[in-house]
Amino acid sequence: MSSQDHPVLSFKDKIKSSWPYTLTVAIIGFVSLWIRTGPSDTVFLSDGSVRFMTNDAWYHMRTLRALLENYPHRIFFDPMTNYPNGSYIHFGPLFDQIMAIISLILGMGHPSSHLVDTVGAYFPAVLGALTVIPVYYIGKYIGGHKTGILAAILIAFAPGQFLTRSMIGFTDHHVAESLFSTLFMMFFMLALISAKERKLRFEDVFNKKFSVLKGPFIYSVLAGVMYSAYQLCWPGGSLFLFIVLVYAIFQYILDNFRNESSDYLGFTGIVTCLVSTILILPFVHPDMGFSLYYYSWFHVVTAIGAMAGFAALSLIEREFKRKKMRAYYYPLLILGAGILGLIITKIASPSLYSLIINAPNTVFGIQQGGPSTILEASSIFYESNKYRVFTLSKVFLHFTPIGFLASVIGILILAAGLFRKPKPQEVLLLIWSLLILFAIYGQNRFAYYYSINVSILSAYLGGLLLDTVKWKEIDQKFKSSVKSPEDVPKAFKLIKVQQIFIILAIVLFLIYPVYGSAMLYSNTIKSTGSNEPNQPWMEACDWLRSNTPDPGMNYNAVYEAPNSGEMFQYPDTAYGVMSWWDYGHYIEIIGHRMPNANPFQAGVGGRRVSINETNQPGAATFLTAPSEEEASAVLEAIDPRPDKAGARYIMSDAKMATSIFGSITTWTLDTEGYYQAYRTGSQYQSIPTARYFNTMEAKLHIFDGNGLKQYRMVHETKAYQTDELGYKQVYNYFYGGKLPEVYTGYVKVFEYVKGANITGTASPNESVKINTTILTNQGRTFDYSQSTTADSQGRYELTVPYSTEGPIANQTQFDTAPSGPYVLSYGDTTKEVRVSEEAVLKGEEIKV
What we know:
The chain is an alpha+beta fold. β6 and β7 (683-688) form a beta hairpin.
């Protein structure tokens, strides 16, 4: 492009020329915001509380409040979760920092709790709406204003993960990832275009030709800033550095085959990587070594390596041209250099080598074992990672059928363009789109990235259709005819019939499907609410906070991480709460207690690669334990201190006992035998087996802990209709059980205690029984019973977990307890036994 092709316009003329597009993009942005904030009534409740939409959103609000209390210091290590180890926080600091700054400004230095919640709730919706801006510009530089406007419209309505993760109340960093990664690609693209147009050479740097360097330099710096912003929202942001490196290799090879200089590319890449290295370096935790998901030396080394790669590729290309070597040697030399680099890395740093080799599989590969049960980590093309049932249903849900098809066609058109003389921005879009497509093959969570690509590619395709009806002519007529808003109605008369037909086709096939999907989702959220967490979990966590002992931790304090290989030093009053990892953040943030496992998948335990591994202690191991003794051994093993157990409380819900129990077993890699096929009528139904009913989860939730020696129910929430009833019916029908076939508490809280030891004498080898009726806080009763056999001397011992005398100060204020004394019976003898809370907590002996 040259000034002869496009006459230089004055600043005033540029404003006049661009205002219709600026206004249009602004309107699209406001419509996008309106869609995302529509369900506000489900987030801001009538009682004044704010209900966020996911467990990670709740956690971001926890780190935000801690940041505001300790500003500008943020939590990077959280000892209030993954007890007794704590967790390094892999969430980047920038997302929270922006919310904190906004809160401080709006609150004039002292924001109220409700203001902070309001900022947090609206923040993702605003970021989602702002994403239309870089999408517009990328579309514009791919296919002109028409493509940019269409791309902006499509991303404003884009359904699936991009929409859900940018809704009001979905206060998670994913939408920030989308915005900053798109801004990064936009500025990187603009830097390439600017440098290419100015025919930038490295000699211009040495000769200080600022007129040539100014534009590319500014755009490259902004690209580096946006890449850093992206990575400071999510440490795994190295994905987009990888995308740019793969693009660069292709672009260098193409330029070399066309005998063109790639100095413009080398300059852009070096400046971008240099800026990102400088900005990321202060956040590196040296003690992390090399880690993909924490700020470690890996992020600095890869950025420096990328910078060196751009420099080397440019230098090699220059030598090729100087020595007039054959073009096809160039990719072979790149391949050889890459292999040599890996060999050197393996020798110099095996840990870094291992991380580099395994990183592509981490992102692009299909998860196995426990991680395959994480919904967002499953492949978008398979119904199940385990059974690999191919499906396009999730693809169509996230992008609509036509949107996905249009993106594939767009990719094919761009790929075909490689055989002509493609522009750098077209090659960049092609490589970017292909790699994100591969990423969603591995993990559907990256669908929020691919929505950007779908919007741009669909708009690119729509722009090509408009070109077939000479849209450029009508665009020029609009520019010459429309001088003010009053001229717009007259200008519409310039549009021809075939152009109207294409516009209608684009609206009908590209815009309307995404608009319909977006509105359907928004209206569904309006009517159903976010439901995260559900009311039983809210109530159970509130109860936990108010009725269990203070663990002695400063909830919002910023704690230093322990030295490598050492444990965090908790006070003696600290304890853990065992539950499945899904609920860890709720336990911490709403309950202000320390979960053993959390949604970072920390504390899950189990196995990762082979059934031959040792089943590590953790949530999966505890919940699937086949006996009380083995379950208790897991709790004791979680905390290596001999006088401490890993958890004092266990929280179970109906889903853990039924619908997600299979996911729990998957983390142990020992999944067989918990269910069996049973023919009912003309079909088979999967029903629980004896192995399932022997698990600790079943003993606690299905059997209410009946017969357990050291576990007592201390609270339950309201009952709801769940699969629990069917499980009880199966147990009664197939295993001769006598369980009351009723729904019980959706969430149940149990306490792990030493238990009071009831001892006495009876006839040798005589059966001794003890039982009582437990009355829960919901007014429900169930039987608790236990039995043993006296030894040859007539001695017996029974360990019971319930106190008949009620709670005591500074301990669990339980509201579920025996309605009367224990009844001990053997032979013709019946005795009442009362047990104090001290005896239960201290494991004291009660002689009968």
